[in-house]
Amino acid sequence: MSLGIGEGIEPPDDAEAIRDAKGWLTATMPPGQSYRETIHQASFSAIFDLDAARSAASFDKFWRDVSSLIHPPQV
User: Fold this and answer.
1) DSSP string, 27-74
2) For 8, which DSSP code?
3) Contact criterion met (CB below 8 Å) for 40 and 17
4) Which residue among 11, 31, 35, 65 is least enclosed by CB atoms within 10 Å?
5) Rg of the chain, C-alpha, whole Å
6) What residue ranges do the domains of the chain occupy?
7) Each residue's pLDDT tens digit, 21-66
């Protein structure tokens, strides 16, 4: 599936170290194109890998926090 980013682009080793994710996405686009949420977000979301995302500590914390709101402990 083509998302419009450069061929062979691999995810960064430490995604949490990126401070300008939109800039990183734009840098991977073909020359003359830039990342735009309204155009690209749906196709990116369609292939989003939750398991891979949970390997990032901040996303895993978000996941646990939302899970506890959806499925609160029984008392």
Assistant:
1) HHSPTT----HHHHHHHHHHT--HHHHTTSHHHHHHHHHHHHHHSPPP
2) T
3) no
4) 31
5) 15
6) 15-70
7) 889 888 888 888 889 999 888 888 888 888 888 988 999 999 999 9
**Structural tokens at position 41:** 């977000």
The three-state secondary structure class of 24 is: helix
Between CA 41 and CA 24 the distance in angstroms is 14
Question: Using a CB cutoff of 8 Å and minimum separation of 24, what contacts does 12-20 make?
Answer: 15/56, 16/56, 16/57, 16/58
**Two tokens at 37?**
């949420």
Q: Residue 71: pLDDT band by 50, 70, 90 thresholds?
A: very high
In this prediction, residue 73 carries a pLDDT of 81
